[in-house]
Amino acid sequence: MYIFVLVCHFKKLAMRKVILGVAVSLDGFIEGPNGEYDWCVIDPDYSFDEFFKRLDTFFVGRKTYEMTSAAEGSPPGFPTFKEYVFSTTLDKVKEGATLIKGDIKTEVERIKKEDGKDIWLFGGAGLTTSLMNLGLVDELSLAIYPILLGGGKPLFQNINNRIKLKLVDLKKYSTGSVSLTYNIIV
Amino acid sequence: MYIFVLVCHFKKLAMRKVILGVAVSLDGFIEGPNGEYDWCVIDPDYSFDEFFKRLDTFFVGRKTYEMTSAAEGSPPGFPTFKEYVFSTTLDKVKEGATLIKGDIKTEVERIKKEDGKDIWLFGGAGLTTSLMNLGLVDELSLAIYPILLGGGKPLFQNINNRIKLKLVDLKKYSTGSVSLTYNIIV
User: Based on CB atoms within 10 Å of each CB, which residue in A133, B86, B93, B178 is the most buried?
Assistant: First the structure.
């Protein structure tokens, strides 16, 4: 009995985290008014290595999937992750990717309980809102760029309730971007 | 001639800065959906002393003025600053305060050229937008609180153009709030 409880406890602790990891302007936009992301230049002293070590999977919304799958392969230096595409309109996705059309909560909870590393919630805005409101995101890792875009696509919109956060990491880069990492407090 | 140029240069360098100094949620709100600011608790290891030393004046919009002037005197620990109230609808303001009804750009440029310390742009949202769009704000000093409010009054709205920033200071407090200070790059 004790061993069973301990194992369950360990499984719970070991559950995979969903990490919203994105770059955002100081006024909270992930794209400019015309879809621009030219402002979002990766800092020369930033390395994705540490972040990527924690991950083996990413979650994308339909629009981000269509944008990224138009490119051949992964960008240079990006490892190949297992990809879940969330869409109510697509009927199929590319080979190797998995389409999630059903009940998001059930599906994400199932994936989080599977063996594996953490999961990168890579976008877009609609999927982020859904997962945040369902309490399925565990960590925010935001790179705040030193710019006000004045408009565009907001990172956070239609969040239903207050969400308390715990700052767990803070880094500053030479270009003036700041990386803030928070755990979401349930 | 050289002395004159030098004096002008010095005067320009010495011009008073307008500093937008506010607390904001990670999703960019200065008030919650029902005007709440209970989330904005001053960190026990934060001191206003250093910030206040730089200032002797503040700029407020009409709503902030009406809210703060309903209270008797300054909050404990807050020095008494010279107060400029920006409003197109008010006809008079309390004794000691100055009403700015005219051309904002001319008036603010005049005040910035006067002798004195820096100026705290204390709110509200409308005045902030006007001064940002007119290029009259020199510095942002934001305390980012570890919370998503999900809605409310945004700090930045209707900013007309991209505004580039230079990070000049970064501090972390025990409650998880982060103070980010930027110069606005003209």
Answer: B86
